[in-house]
Amino acid sequence: xxxxxxxxxxxxxxxxxxxxxxxxxxxxxxxxxxxxxxxxxxxxxxxxxxxxxxxxxxxxxxxxxxxxxxxxxxxxxxxxxxxxxxxxxxxxxxxxxxxxxxxxxxxxxxxxxxxxxxxxxxxxxxxxxxxxxxxxxxxxxxxxxxxxxxxxxxxxxxxxxxxxxxxxxxxxxxxxxxxxxxxxxxxxxxxxxxxxxxxxxxxxxxxxxxxxxxxxxxxxxxxxxxxxxxxxxxxxxxxx
Length: 240
Description:
By secondary structure, this protein is of the alpha/beta class. The chain folds into two domains: 2-179 and 224-228, NAD(P)-binding Rossmann-like Domain (Rossmann fold, 3-Layer(aba) Sandwich); 180-219, Alpha-Beta Complex (UDP-galactose 4-epimerase, domain 1), CATH 3.90.25.10. Helices cover 34% and strands 15% of the residues. The protein has seven helices and ten strands. The strands form three sheets. The chain has a six-stranded parallel beta sheet with strand order 3-2-1-4-5-7, with helices on both faces. It has a two-stranded parallel sheet with strand order 6-8. It has a two-stranded parallel sheet with strand order 9-10. It is globular and about 55 Å long. 34% of the residues are buried. The model is unreliable at 228-240 (pLDDT under 50).
């Protein structure tokens, strides 16, 4: 089994790679070939019995998707994205990375599907950002996406593309809608919800943390420990 992880140098990508190296779980067997791709060169994990390919590639550049599909991965984890705050500040960058790159990936798979019958499993990391306010305590599958940010719009658009390509049998796609993942280690990133990690991480390190929202603000969170236990998931979307 060949596994491709896009965005492998990010927090979630590194954790997912670690899970595949150590213990994948019941749904997927241990991969024979692990392909790690990111804009910056991903770190090569240790103690892996299969083959590992670490590739620096910008998926938003035309032709790059075709290159990373040369090995015909059986499973593709699409985690590559510009985070919410950065996508809001730079609209062109957000659409290029979060929408255009995904479309080029899907089209590269479609071309291989039509020529060779290639049909991988594709797990796209979507976001709770596809929803707008107000939200119920439990979000049902019938909840209509009404995003309030460019990031949420981009994720919702890729979800629709993924659904259509899956309907046509081009790939077997699934889009878990992830809430804020915390506590994020290291320095804060450009995610608009990054302060949810900061208000836990910084005090533990003896540093001051700023809460930029009212105390009564409610939000959905998940930890890396819980999330990566479900990275190899059955078809269907996850709502929170």
